[in-house]
Amino acid sequence: MTPTVSDIIGIMESLAPRWLAESWDNVGLQVGDPQWPVETVWLALDPLPETVAAAVSAGAQMLITHHPLLFRPLSSVDVSTPVGTIVYTAMAHRLAIFSAHTNLDSVTGGINDILAGRLGLDALTVLGDEKQAEAIKLAVFVPQTHETAVLEALVTAGAGCIGDYSGCTFRSVGKGTFTPGSRSRPYLGQPGRFTQVDEVRIETRVTRERLAEVVTALRKAHPYETMAFDLYPMQPHETGQGIGRVGLLDPPQTLDAFAEAVRCALGLPTVRVVGDGAMTVNRVAVCSGSGGGLMSAVFASGAQVYVTGDLRYHDARDAQARGVGLIDIGHFASEHLVIDPLADRLAAAIAEAGWSIAIKTYDAESDPFRVLSS
Hints:
Layout lengths: L4 H11 L12 E4 L8 E5 L4 H9 L4 E4 L16 H11 L3 E4 L2 H5 L4 H8 L2 E6 L5 E2 L1 E9 L3 H10 L12 E10 L16 E13 L3 H11 L7 E5 L3 E2 L6 E10 H12 L5 E3 L5 E11 L4 H7 L3 E5 L3 H10 L2 E4 L2 H6 L2 H14 L5 E4 L13
Parallel strand pairs: 2-3, 2-17, 3-4, 14-15, 15-16
Antiparallel strand pairs: 1-4, 5-12, 6-11, 7-9, 7-10, 8-9, 12-14, 13-16
């Protein structure tokens, strides 16, 4: 069976769950049909006209980007505009375009964790507000003969994820009783007769977003005509995921020495630095993309330096007044570093699923800003 766009979306949702995206964001399928078959997937930071044209020319059926193509509803699809050209080209050549944006920023192992790792930071915590997950506890009763099949169905559908752990369940053995009705067709027992069965109670946790998918998978694996299961709403809980990270630098360095280490680690020609170059830094805040909106969180975090992109003049003045250093690495450099690791993870998940799909990264992307020096 040839995998579809929907199958790849399912993998991407497991790598960067949609519920982690910011409320203003537009993530997921931007253009295309979930049922289109997929043999080649391209990955890029931006869905630019040249990127889409190159993907089409290479015969790709799906393009996964970090930045969304569509941030707000379109009033028209005008092919004389860049967005209109992209939509027309993608639809005409059956190229699906999918975005994983702030959900990929926030998720454990996502862009911010990769950035912090490249800079040598340890003991990471979330810089911004931690995302809170709305979870449901699911308990299902199954005959012992189908315990393994039901358990595998639950886990495969995405139940049982707690933090960085998956497949989390609890099982207890007991005795199930029931009397089938006269018009029933029971898997065990006979209509009108009281029946006792050795059953297993399986408990696990499911996010609200995956509940329908998990219950559907559960029904397919469960042998009973009428499946007995309970759903218990749980209090929202913090997940250790969110925008930005704060970590420790060991050993401590001066601001200028750390700024040079950042420049080298990211392969940049220059970085912009604010603050006393001789100050010692050992607590570092980072945020991929445009991090100016988290300045208050940076000041509250106790970090001596903040590494991000797209900082403004007044951000620099605020930091100066508070004795906090800034290192502006630019928007592109802070995010493009996710493309290769994401391609590796996607390829591994596809291989595990047993599909033969080519994964390619678009190598012609570059920072739109150039640095001129005398």
